[in-house]
Amino acid sequence: VFEGGSWVQVRVGRLGLGLGLGLGPSSPLLFLHLPQFFAIFAFSTCGSYSGVFRMSVECKNRTESDLSIEVEFEYPFRSEYFDAPTCKESNKERIFLFGDHSSSAEFFVTIGVFAFLYTTAALCIYVFFFEKYKEKNKGPLIDLVVTGVFAFMWLVSSAAWAKGLSDVKKATDPDAVITMIGACKEEENHCREVHDPVMSGLNTSVAFGFINLVLWAGNLWFVFKETSFFGERKTRGAPEAEPGGPSPCSWGEPI
């Protein structure tokens, strides 16, 4: 029952044949599902993120203090700023957080979205147009090339976003931001952090990025098995029967 594919692939293949979809156990449908769902997790955890941290600036003159400065930042992490008291009457100064980290974040999300769209399209082709997909070996070859490109793009985008996330963490560290506030440089004023930003969602997005890299790179083998190159390789590696000699299956059989 399990030869030629996993139990799940065999059951899916039988279901496909029953519905007239032309699917067989060799179709790597299970491995097309996994990158699709993990691509969703990767770009959604990054693209939907918003965070906040709080600080307090206590001036010598208490009436000029601000004990709850909220600094909000969100995807794509571009040119965030906030207003802080100067401890000089009611004047405020605008503080910009270090750097523009939008390029790596947007690149990562874009790769995730396109990976999801491609996998959805590929899955539809596998289910409804499998015979066309196998025709003249064009479908498997295109699939192999695109899968390889996405595996490489996941490597590049995940590495870039991991570096970008490290920079975002440094830029939103309350202790580092406090040093940028002019009033906090004066000894008569007291500044402190109240609440750190929660970065677990962004950490998860990086993890999902590298998981997608592993899934897409691993999926290359299953896509390669659908190409004619794999069939030719198996044909060349098969032993040839000698003329007039017994076939391999006849050894040990009674004559």
TrEMBL record:
PANTHER family: SYNAPTOPHYSIN. It is a multi-pass membrane protein. This is Synaptophysin. Keywords: Calcium, Cytoplasmic vesicle, Glycoprotein, Membrane, Phosphoprotein, Repeat, Synapse, Synaptosome, Transmembrane, Transmembrane helix, Ubl conjugation. One of its GO terms (cellular component) is presynaptic active zone. Residues 235-255 are annotated as: Disordered. It is found in: Cytoplasmic vesicle, Secretory vesicle, Synaptic vesicle membrane; Synapse, Synaptosome. Homohexamer or homotetramer. Interacts with SRCIN1. Interacts with VAMP2; the interaction is inhibited by interaction of VAPM2 with SEPT8. InterPro entries: Marvel (IPR008253), Synaptophysin/porin (IPR001285). Residues 23-228 form the MARVEL domain. Possibly involved in structural functions as organizing other membrane components or in targeting the vesicles to the plasma membrane. Involved in the regulation of short-term and long-term synaptic plasticity. PROSITE patterns: MARVEL (PS51225). Belongs to the synaptophysin/synaptobrevin family. The chain crosses the membrane at residues 107-129, 141-162, 206-224.
